[in-house]
Amino acid sequence: MISTVEVLRRVCWVLEVVVDRTGRIGGWILFATVALVFLNAFNRYAFSFSPVWAQELEWHLLAGQAALGLAYAWLHGDHIAVDVLSQRYSRTIQLWLNLLVAAVIAIPCSLFMIKVAIPYVDRAFDMLEGSPNPGGLPYRFVPKSLVAVGFLLIALQAAAIAIKSALELLGHERPAPPRAS
Q: Which domain holds residue 138?
Protein backbone atom coordinates (compact mmCIF):
# COMPACT_ATOMS: atom_id res chain seq x y z
CA MET A 1 0.00 0.00 0.00
CA ILE A 2 1.25 3.46 -0.88
CA SER A 3 1.75 5.86 2.02
CA THR A 4 0.15 9.28 2.21
CA VAL A 5 3.58 10.85 1.94
CA GLU A 6 4.27 8.97 -1.29
CA VAL A 7 0.89 10.03 -2.71
CA LEU A 8 1.67 13.67 -1.87
CA ARG A 9 5.11 13.35 -3.50
CA ARG A 10 3.52 11.99 -6.67
CA VAL A 11 0.83 14.67 -6.70
CA CYS A 12 3.51 17.33 -6.26
CA TRP A 13 5.55 15.81 -9.10
CA VAL A 14 2.52 15.75 -11.45
CA LEU A 15 1.63 19.37 -10.62
CA GLU A 16 5.19 20.51 -11.29
CA VAL A 17 5.43 18.52 -14.53
CA VAL A 18 2.29 20.29 -15.79
CA VAL A 19 3.71 23.69 -14.81
CA ASP A 20 7.12 22.85 -16.28
CA ARG A 21 5.78 21.63 -19.64
CA THR A 22 3.39 24.53 -20.10
CA GLY A 23 6.16 26.94 -19.13
CA ARG A 24 8.37 25.46 -21.83
CA ILE A 25 5.61 26.14 -24.34
CA GLY A 26 5.63 29.73 -23.05
CA GLY A 27 9.36 29.85 -23.81
CA TRP A 28 8.74 28.88 -27.42
CA ILE A 29 6.02 31.52 -27.59
CA LEU A 30 8.64 34.04 -26.44
CA PHE A 31 10.84 33.03 -29.38
CA ALA A 32 7.89 33.46 -31.77
CA THR A 33 7.07 36.86 -30.25
CA VAL A 34 10.62 38.14 -30.71
CA ALA A 35 10.63 36.96 -34.33
CA LEU A 36 7.23 38.55 -34.98
CA VAL A 37 8.21 41.89 -33.41
CA PHE A 38 11.39 41.91 -35.50
CA LEU A 39 9.46 41.18 -38.71
CA ASN A 40 6.79 43.77 -37.88
CA ALA A 41 9.43 46.44 -37.24
CA PHE A 42 11.38 45.47 -40.35
CA ASN A 43 8.27 45.56 -42.55
CA ARG A 44 7.15 48.87 -41.06
CA TYR A 45 10.47 50.65 -41.66
CA ALA A 46 11.65 48.87 -44.81
CA PHE A 47 8.36 48.63 -46.68
CA SER A 48 5.98 50.98 -44.79
CA PHE A 49 3.81 47.93 -44.31
CA SER A 50 2.50 46.63 -40.99
CA PRO A 51 -0.68 44.53 -41.09
CA VAL A 52 -3.11 44.90 -38.21
CA TRP A 53 -3.32 41.14 -37.67
CA ALA A 54 0.45 40.93 -37.14
CA GLN A 55 0.38 43.74 -34.58
CA GLU A 56 -2.50 42.09 -32.73
CA LEU A 57 -0.75 38.73 -32.85
CA GLU A 58 2.04 40.31 -30.78
CA TRP A 59 -0.23 40.84 -27.79
CA HIS A 60 -1.94 37.48 -28.31
CA LEU A 61 1.48 35.84 -28.03
CA LEU A 62 2.41 38.05 -25.08
CA ALA A 63 -0.70 36.82 -23.26
CA GLY A 64 0.49 33.26 -23.82
CA GLN A 65 3.97 34.05 -22.55
CA ALA A 66 2.69 35.64 -19.36
CA ALA A 67 0.03 33.02 -18.68
CA LEU A 68 2.32 30.06 -19.22
CA GLY A 69 5.49 31.62 -17.87
CA LEU A 70 4.61 33.02 -14.44
CA ALA A 71 4.07 29.68 -12.70
CA TYR A 72 7.12 28.27 -14.52
CA ALA A 73 9.25 31.09 -13.13
CA TRP A 74 7.94 30.34 -9.63
CA LEU A 75 8.72 26.63 -10.08
CA HIS A 76 12.32 27.34 -11.05
CA GLY A 77 12.90 30.13 -8.51
CA ASP A 78 13.13 32.85 -11.16
CA HIS A 79 10.26 34.87 -9.71
CA ILE A 80 10.51 38.05 -7.71
CA ALA A 81 10.73 37.20 -4.03
CA VAL A 82 11.34 39.12 -0.85
CA ASP A 83 14.66 37.38 -0.22
CA VAL A 84 15.95 40.31 1.81
CA LEU A 85 13.51 39.33 4.54
CA SER A 86 13.40 35.57 4.18
CA GLN A 87 17.17 34.98 4.02
CA ARG A 88 17.47 36.08 7.65
CA TYR A 89 14.98 33.47 8.84
CA SER A 90 15.66 29.86 9.71
CA ARG A 91 14.73 27.13 7.25
CA THR A 92 11.70 26.25 9.37
CA ILE A 93 10.35 29.81 9.25
CA GLN A 94 11.01 29.97 5.49
CA LEU A 95 9.02 26.75 5.03
CA TRP A 96 6.14 28.11 7.13
CA LEU A 97 6.16 31.33 5.08
CA ASN A 98 6.15 29.35 1.82
CA LEU A 99 3.30 27.19 3.08
CA LEU A 100 1.23 30.15 4.27
CA VAL A 101 1.81 32.28 1.18
CA ALA A 102 0.90 29.36 -1.09
CA ALA A 103 -2.13 28.17 0.87
CA VAL A 104 -3.53 31.44 2.22
CA ILE A 105 -2.67 33.93 -0.52
CA ALA A 106 -1.70 32.36 -3.86
CA ILE A 107 -4.29 29.59 -4.12
CA PRO A 108 -7.33 31.62 -2.94
CA CYS A 109 -6.36 34.64 -5.06
CA SER A 110 -5.80 32.44 -8.11
CA LEU A 111 -9.13 30.68 -7.65
CA PHE A 112 -10.86 34.05 -7.26
CA MET A 113 -9.25 35.32 -10.47
CA ILE A 114 -10.31 32.16 -12.32
CA LYS A 115 -13.88 32.68 -11.06
CA VAL A 116 -13.80 36.29 -12.28
CA ALA A 117 -12.19 35.37 -15.62
CA ILE A 118 -14.59 32.61 -16.63
CA PRO A 119 -17.64 34.86 -17.34
CA TYR A 120 -15.30 37.26 -19.17
CA VAL A 121 -14.10 34.42 -21.40
CA ASP A 122 -17.62 33.00 -21.75
CA ARG A 123 -18.95 36.29 -23.10
CA ALA A 124 -16.09 36.54 -25.59
CA PHE A 125 -16.62 32.92 -26.68
CA ASP A 126 -20.43 33.20 -26.93
CA MET A 127 -20.20 36.15 -29.29
CA LEU A 128 -17.08 34.76 -31.04
CA GLU A 129 -15.44 38.06 -30.25
CA GLY A 130 -12.86 39.20 -32.73
CA SER A 131 -10.84 42.28 -33.33
CA PRO A 132 -12.81 45.50 -33.84
CA ASN A 133 -10.14 46.57 -36.34
CA PRO A 134 -10.47 45.79 -40.04
CA GLY A 135 -7.96 43.08 -40.86
CA GLY A 136 -7.59 42.16 -37.18
CA LEU A 137 -7.56 38.69 -35.68
CA PRO A 138 -10.70 36.69 -34.93
CA TYR A 139 -11.20 34.58 -31.79
CA ARG A 140 -10.23 37.08 -29.15
CA PHE A 141 -11.56 34.62 -26.57
CA VAL A 142 -8.36 32.56 -27.01
CA PRO A 143 -5.97 35.08 -25.44
CA LYS A 144 -8.67 36.07 -22.94
CA SER A 145 -8.96 32.45 -21.82
CA LEU A 146 -5.25 32.50 -21.02
CA VAL A 147 -6.05 34.68 -18.00
CA ALA A 148 -7.84 31.72 -16.40
CA VAL A 149 -5.20 29.25 -17.60
CA GLY A 150 -2.39 31.36 -16.15
CA PHE A 151 -4.05 31.60 -12.74
CA LEU A 152 -4.80 27.88 -12.81
CA LEU A 153 -1.10 27.20 -13.35
CA ILE A 154 -0.21 29.55 -10.50
CA ALA A 155 -2.67 27.69 -8.24
CA LEU A 156 -1.13 24.35 -9.26
CA GLN A 157 2.37 25.59 -8.52
CA ALA A 158 1.23 27.06 -5.20
CA ALA A 159 -0.29 23.68 -4.29
CA ALA A 160 3.01 21.98 -5.14
CA ILE A 161 4.93 24.47 -3.00
CA ALA A 162 2.49 23.98 -0.11
CA ILE A 163 2.89 20.19 -0.36
CA LYS A 164 6.69 20.40 -0.51
CA SER A 165 6.84 22.79 2.43
CA ALA A 166 4.43 20.71 4.53
CA LEU A 167 6.36 17.51 3.83
CA GLU A 168 9.64 19.12 4.79
CA LEU A 169 8.11 20.64 7.94
CA LEU A 170 6.92 17.15 8.92
CA GLY A 171 10.47 15.85 8.60
CA HIS A 172 10.22 14.19 5.20
CA GLU A 173 12.68 14.68 2.39
CA ARG A 174 11.71 17.47 0.02
CA PRO A 175 10.41 16.03 -3.29
CA ALA A 176 12.73 16.62 -6.21
CA PRO A 177 11.47 18.86 -9.03
CA PRO A 178 10.74 17.22 -12.39
CA ARG A 179 13.75 16.77 -14.64
CA ALA A 180 14.00 18.50 -17.99
CA SER A 181 13.20 16.20 -20.86
A: 4-169
